[in-house]
Amino acid sequence: MKTQKISEAVVRRLPIYLRYLNELQMNNVSTVSSQDLGQKLDLNPAQIRKDLAYFGEFGKKGIGYDINYLIEKIRQILKLDRHIQVALVGAGNLGRALCNYNTYLRNDMKIVALFDAMPAKTGEVINNLVVLPMDKMKSVMTELGVRIGIITVPAAEAQNVANEFVACGIEAILNFAPVIIKVPPDVRVHYADFTTELQSLAYYLD
Amino acid sequence: MKTQKISEAVVRRLPIYLRYLNELQMNNVSTVSSQDLGQKLDLNPAQIRKDLAYFGEFGKKGIGYDINYLIEKIRQILKLDRHIQVALVGAGNLGRALCNYNTYLRNDMKIVALFDAMPAKTGEVINNLVVLPMDKMKSVMTELGVRIGIITVPAAEAQNVANEFVACGIEAILNFAPVIIKVPPDVRVHYADFTTELQSLAYYLD
DNA sequence: TAGATTGTTAATCGATTAACAATC
DNA sequence: TAGATTGTTAATCGATTAACAATC
What we know:
- The structure is a homodimer of 206-residue chains.
- Helices cover 43% and strands 19% of the residues of chain A.
- Chain A has helices spanning 8-26, 34-41, 45-53, 67-77, 93-99, 102-105, 137-144, 155-167, 194-203, and strands spanning 31-32, 59-60, 64-66, 84-89, 109-115, 125-126, 129-132, 146-151, 172-175, 188-191.
- In chain A, the strands form 2 sheets. In chain A, strands 6-7-5-4-8-9-10 form a 7-stranded mixed β-sheet. In chain A, strands 1-3-2 form a 3-stranded antiparallel β-sheet.
- The radius of gyration of chain A is 19 Å and the shape is globular.
């Protein structure tokens, strides 16, 4: 596990491996080859082997990868072997929908705080979480040790929310608002914009 | 506009350009340079010029790009100059949330049909759309001319829904379920999985 | 042992960036 | 005209794929 810079493409594939490995584990499969994985995930087997080899020698020649062991390793790499606390701002339709993934995320990640700027929303309960006003953000996030923030507010407010997250010392942001946000270089931002996704799909229609 | 194969990366950036151009248009800005765009969108100006040049000469040397004209052109390229009908399967929390984007999508794309396998959901009304049972899919989709399908069902059912979409002659699918689906090569699939997105973010925590 | 499959190097492929002549 | 900015070629950078010795 050298301090080599791992490309973003590699990091993005790890959760996909993990997802399928979990499925295999549930089906009591004990071993899997890069060939099998590639077939199932529409990826080149050599790429999968190379991705994993960046982090260590996890497989056995002639056999493949032990599923339990590989799951454990990928979880370590992704830092999912600890509990990671997540906060969400924007208790609209999308925000509510995401809160319901808490069950799916299980141990690793959990939305532990929910904020909304509209006073009317304050106090509402969504999936066991009480909607809090924005001015509680700093204290609540510090207390709960939140490290990742999710933005599900309208585009016009996304930058403000990002600023507030940054002021609270957030380390990474997942932004669902359809706008590019500016943050300091040490804060990682990923985008999850449904509308651009749909629009790029349209290109491929005949 | 030669029949050169355009890379996926380019196609994915076009909606992002479009989004910001629309914002500029609303603010009555008339012209923009690749420099300005690059700064705002965190992209290299040369890349933006190159992306656009794949499709034609849209700019003016010494001036930049006329915003109205460029919007029109990008909309043509993405085939957003027509109405594109979209169907959604899975009227859960996420599905409902997405239905509310109809207003945002405005002219170009519209969710026009909503299906769910659970009989209990049938007949429910979400954002002016009635939830229909799966056995109505073929006839409704043919009648409405649906070309793109969205999947927001649990992972275990996603492949079945994809199969049904394919049987209805769907051309492209946006899959929110956390699983890789198999479709014929002429059907385009994009993924929008919130959980893998969050998990890859975790990697970048210190 | 024979067959299978890894880890890794080398080859290929593709995407991004720099540079600059053309020109508004 | 002088300054700005495009479109495009060439250079760079990075990611994917092929190939194969090592070995279970």
